[in-house]
Amino acid sequence: MNEAFDPLAHQPATDLPANKAVDLVNRAKENVLATTRQQPALVLSGAFVATILIAVLLGYWRGRVEEASKRQRLFEQLIPEFTKWMRQHGRRFADPIKEGIEATKSAVEDVSRSGVNLQRYIWPIVEKQKRRFSNLF
Q1: What's the gap between Cα 89 and its chain centre?
Q2: 36 contacts: CB under 8 Å, gap ≥ 6
């Protein structure tokens, strides 16, 4: 257990990063105050423009949020009305589709019945030809 011991590691530092940050903020604040005293019209016009820009951006953002909310409410209102309308008028759309499916089903049944009838008619002929072919050998 050979550990290196640094006696200076536990001593408090004189230049902490927090102290530097506080100094930087204090200097910036003093610079702004000095500039405001020297040129108040320039600083106030900049603040005025910044305020207007922030107000426009907030208004734009609020409008977009309100529009999205409005669309969502409209969608939530239309879905129950649409389902109610489909219950009332759905037969008008479903009946032709149902009739088409039934017509297709009956056509398939007719074709399968005719295939069975054709098989009943042709099968004895095929069997007779098989016996003739078999009797030759």
Answers
A1: 31
A2: 43
